[in-house]
Amino acid sequence: MRLFIALAALVALTVPLAATADHVSADWDDGNVGGWFPATGAATLAVWPTDGYGGGYLESYEQPFTYGIAGAINYAAAYTGDFNVHGYVRMQVAVSFLAGTFDTVYIHIRYQDSAHNGWYLPLAADLGSGGWQWFDVSFDPHWIDQQALDAGWLQETSSPSFSTTMSDVYHTGIKATGIGALSLGLDSFRLWDGTVPPVEFSWGEIKALYR
After folding, report:
1. CB 3.0 to 4.6 Å from 120: which of 75, 92, 108, 134, for a disulfide?
2. Alpha helices (H) in the chain, listed in sequence order
3. Rounded to an integer, what distance in angstroms lies between the CA atom of residue 47 and that of residue 93?
């Protein structure tokens, strides 16, 4: 028994549990938008209970075509502020192109307030597919600009350096651009800190390793 406790404690230290991580997630399984807002004033949000990547999902649509932007943004404390303090180093999201002709889909991090822009990361999606596509992105909020650029991030005008942006985030969003009556599905959004292993273990799974 003592050996089991010692081994379990060692694993708990070397493979931290997901429950102890600083993270935020949105699955939209409860029928609510959960504090998310449309990407623009011309877009609308709706929550559907089934047919998501897993369970419900969030739909953002722009009908009729106005700005050619669909998506959702969040201003809540867990999605904003200093990503260094949060410890965020991973983002995950599932997207589905439900209607319209899309040009790009991207994660968007805006700096400080509405007077600034920020940085965005285009996702390597199959824009012609209507099925769900899952993305898992690693990043470092301390990156200098060249490191962020090398990782695929792009800087907008009227925005500071990547590290400065990540130190004072105004909103986090997932957006897509295109033409026509756009409809974008979003599901399983995650922001994780560095304690989350690639494979997450429950306490029961840790105990099972030593049976």
Report:
1. 108
2. 2-14, 83-86, 145-150, 162-167, 203-208
3. 16
Distances from the Cα of 4 to the Cαs of 9, 10, 20, 145, 208, in angstroms?
A: 8, 10, 21, 47, 10
SS3 75: coil
User: What is the pLDDT tens value at each position of the chain, 211 positions in all?
Assistant: 443 333 333 333 333 333 334 799 999 999 999 999 999 999 999 999 999 999 999 999 999 999 999 999 999 999 999 999 999 999 999 999 999 999 999 999 999 999 999 999 999 999 999 899 999 999 999 999 999 999 999 999 999 999 999 999 999 999 999 999 999 999 999 999 988 765 554 434 433 433 4
Distance CA 24, CA 52 (A): 19
**Measured distance CA(105)–CA(184) in Å, rounded:** 9
Q: Which residues, listed in sequence order, are joined to residue 183 by a DSSP beta bridge? A: 61, 99
Could you tell me which residues come within 8 angstroms of residue 185 by beta carbon, excluding any fewer than 6 positions away?
Answer: 52, 57, 58, 59, 94, 95, 96, 97, 98, 132
Q: How far apart are CA 159 and CA 162, in angstroms?
A: 9
With vertex at residue 30, the alpha carbon angle to CA 25 and CA 64, rounded to the nearest 5 degrees, is 90
* Predicted TM-score of the model (pTM): 0.83
CATH homologous superfamily, domain 19-195? Galactose-binding lectin (2.60.120.430)
